Amino acid sequence: MSASPRQAALHALQEWEKGKAFSDEILHTLFARQRLRAADRGFVRETFFGVLRNLSALDFLIAQLRPEGALDGRTRDVLRLGLYQLFHLRVAPHAAVHETVELGGKARGLINAILRRALREKSALERRLAEAPLEIQASHPEFLLARWRAHYGEEATRALCAWDNRPAEVFARANGLKVTVGELLRSSPDAERVSEHPRMLRVSRLPSAWLAQGLCYVQDPSTLLACELLDPQPGETILDACAAPGGKTTYLAELMQNEGRLVACDLYESRVERLRENLLRLGVTNAEPLVHDTMQMGGPFRPATFDRVLIDAPCSNTGVLRRRVDVRWRLTEEDFIRMPIQQLALLRRAAQVVKPGGAIVYSTCSIEPEENDRVVEQALAQIPALRLVEVRRKMPHVDGVDGAFAAKFVLAGPPD
Questions:
Q1: What pLDDT score was predicted for residue 104?
Q2: Along the chain (416 residues), what's the average pLDDT of each consecutive run of 10 residues?
Q3: Which residues are catalytic?
Q4: What is residue 301's predicted lDDT score, i.e. its pLDDT?
């Protein structure tokens, strides 16, 4: 199956509108099915993610250009693609208009008229957009901005929005089980050291051999925070309770020098299969990947089994919105009530399976107090045997990496 890159991007948008899959899953499936050159895949990725990052702003422009009537979903998606190219990409305007109009079917005349008007009135439209409310300018849900304003203030809220709307850099962690940072640097002129972490490299073009040979793992520097706070030692028995796809698991194995026992669990077979693939690729030999519900006892989940436990809890992902570009549109206010209940339950389970004197690290990629500090407060109140050792966090607009939170506890005695 083959398609033009604009047709592929339109297909991805229409799939996303169905609300059943996240953007990265849609692209993974699309690229597996359609024969596209590397440059065309890059164009599809840029336009698809770009539209999702700028969804409210693009719909605002459509409303300015077509105030008099509703549009069907497909026509709106075609216009979103065309306007994104005209306002955000270095694409020749006539090419952007012509190629986009070709997607329009019966609405080609309407789409042509709207896009050509957008070209004529571009400066005026940009001024109107600059005067619109932040939720439109920055394409973030109004309820989320209200939360951030209450927690962090207006300046930080605007900085967070700007961060979320920048394309994410590619960082690669050198896999110390196979290679050194210096060896990777010598093998690629596109790689450079970064100040964010000594094991991380920034790459403009990731060498395929690095991935194929398991020499690196692509992840943000902030993801290493929780692993280093856990501080696993060679020979210990460690639990990574929410492990897939394996970015933290493989780093834990590296810190353990592949010695000891590392139990890595996740809920679904499809996710654990990805975990297995990454463990094999990176040369991890001390890990046991398991399909297991962390909330259920049985299997390796017996009282006082583990020296250390990592709970990288499911969360709202508000610290990684620049990478998970469509999550902002799937979040609801109820998520910030539902998520902490599950997160606290996972911490209770960790307290049951860790040994007395053992360590637990609770982590999220959220920047929301309800999922971070308040979960810690509730855990300390409800599990008297827990002692808080340290809290670390990363804020995107302050630290220049994805948002992350990690809290380390020790279990002073048997949990109640």
A1: 92
A2: 84 93 92 89 95 97 89 95 95 90 94 96 97 98 98 98 94 97 94 93 93 96 98 98 95 98 94 96 97 77 92 97 95 96 95 96 98 98 96 96 98 74
A3: 365
A4: 77
Residue with tokens 């996240």: 22
Sequence-ordered list of residues with C-beta below 8 angstroms from that of 16, at least 6 positions apart, any chain? 23, 26, 48, 52, 326
Q: Within a 13 Å sphere around the CA of 350, how many CA atoms are in the beta-carbon half?
A: 32
Q: What's the pLDDT score for residue 414?
A: 66
Beta bridge partners of 239: 263, 309
Task: Tell which phi-psi region holds residue 406, choosing left (phi > 0), alpha (psi between -120 and 50) or beta.
Answer: beta
Task: Please report the pLDDT score of residue 302 as a whole number.
Answer: 87
Cβ distance 187 to 162 under 8 Å?
no
State both tokens at 22.
């996240």
Sign of CA dihedral 142, 144, 149, 155: negative
Please tell me the distance from the alpha carbon of residue 216 to that of residue 188, in angstroms, as a whole number.
13
Which token pair is 2?
């083959």
Give the span between the Cα atoms of 306 and 240, in whole angstroms.
10
Sheet-wide strand order for 306-312? 287-291, 261-266, 237-240, 306-312, 354-364, 404-411, 386-394
Give the three-class secondary structure for 77.
helix
pLDDT of residue 1: 47
Decide: 170 and 190 in contact? Cβ < 8 Å. Answer: no
Tokens in use for 364?
A: 């999220």
* Sheet of 191-193, strands arranged across: 191-193, 200-203, 171-174, 216-218
Q: Say what the pLDDT of residue 20 is.
A: 83
Asked if residues 211 and 217 have their Cβ atoms less than 8 Å apart, the reply is no
Contact call for residues 198 and 181 (beta carbons, < 8 A): yes
Question: What is the dihedral sign for C-alpha 378, 383, 385, 386?
Answer: negative
* Burial of 81: CB neighbours in 10 Å, binned 0-12, 13-18, 19+: buried
pTM above 0.90, yes or no: yes
